[in-house]
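#struct-pred

JT: dropping the chains for the assembly here, can someone run the whole complex?
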Amino acid sequence: MVRDTSVTLGGIRLKNPVIPASGTFGFGFEAAGWLDLDRLGAIALKGTTLEPRFGNPTPRIAECAGGLLNAVGLQNPGIDALVNEVAPQVRRICSTPLIANISGFSVDEFGVCCEKADNCDSIDLVEINISCPNVHQGGMAFGTDPASAAAVTRRARKATRKPLFIKLSPNVTDIVPIARACEDEGADGLTLINTLLGMRIDIRRRKPVLANRTGGFSGPALFPVALRFVSQVAAACRIPLIGCGGVTSAEDVIEMMMAGATAVQVGSANLHDPLACPAIIDSLPSVMEELNIDKLEDIIGII
Amino acid sequence: MNKYNPTILSNRTVAPKVYRMELATGEAPPLRAGSFVEVEVPGKFLRRPLSVSLSESGRLTLLYKVVGEGTAWLAQAQPGTSLSLLTGLGNGFDTEACRERALLVGGGIGAAPLHQLCRDLRAAGRQVTVLLGFNTASERILCEELETLGATVYVATLDGSAGIRGLVTDALRQVQPAFDYYYVCGPMPMMRALFPLLQADGEFSLEARMGCGTGLCFGCTVQTTEGPRRICHEGPVFTKKVLPW
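RK: done, full complex below.
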């Protein structure tokens, strides 16, 4: 029989729940050279800010067991380039839903970027990143406290009618009040989780490996942490969740969905294997068959 | 980008900590001079970027230096071992930019991609002069191979144990080679020192700590006169005119 891998996210039908995560897939142009973008459930575009940014100095990458640290620092061409040039160009080469990922350094910046994204026909969904650990003002600061998470969500909600997801930080003592604050202010969903703040030291040079000193930890080692956040927030909120953190296989996708995710973002796996997303999508039907799952949506939050 | 699993044909040390690995690549398309590959290493999340030294039909030669745990694993890998490889990464050298006489400058393991570059330039009928810099005579690599291709090769060693005593910049001053275009690959201080000394147009192959090697993560960005560029994707080779040195 044909296994149904489709899911609905913020009113948008995705052919499968597999979405390359923001910051691990560029704007899609690179991967278009080696995979069919239309096979993906959706694409989360590289994080964008009001002004263009060079990002942090290099080294921006440090390896560690089970993943890597990054401190890219939101290198991007700015929201005007995204909505006027980049997103329309991506739209011309694929028809899969596009998620604009937006960061800001003030509540108003989030709002202005969301207004611009709202006017862009090429963008189907907006993901607000209040969890970037690699910029020194703003970024994660908005996602570590319910009041500021609420303020950003309120402003973003006013700015766009597109489905609005808020990407939350794991670097908090209790995520539930933050998740509820976003839900109360009208978010259509939440993405859980961004990277864990980490650090490496080059013991021979006696200096941090990353020029930024600290960076965001991602990779397979994060999977159980992300799964726990998804499960915890699924129990506390009613809006759909995108599970993100350490997903590398179809089994991980199913586990994340059983914990409460409606869709899943694949991040670091793309950096190890640029064909990770199509490989996961290819193996979903056979894993569903093995587990007697006819329709993937049936397993969301069943545990 | 092409992903496949070639088999190691040979893997031998050619200088202290430097290895030449030959891979059987079957039907995989040949690779551009100056492009690179990313090799998977057991137990490591990130692949290791390595220069293509020579790409021929059915065969790929990598020259690499052991600098950490990943390359140490690679150095002990036996013939017959299958490796997971991403190939066709980066832009490579522009061999058509040289009209008659090319100058190639390499420092240490940075000489690796000059082998194929020299082959391609010679095949196109260009005169090739090569300056290679090493710490000491025992670290010399590729000198014979480049001479066999018909290049004029000059070596500089820091300790004076072979060729000209000093750096490649010293060799450049002594040799005063004639060239209309140049190609440089080596440590960053060497390239920065050469930049103001080389008067013609030319290009530099840059190196960085990379995440993905495929342009996805923006981990290896460098500032150019045309804006931020990824060393792994728009590079690793950048023309003199876009480098804000």
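JT: nice. The mean pLDDT of chain B is 97. The first strand of chain B starts at residue 2 and ends at 4.
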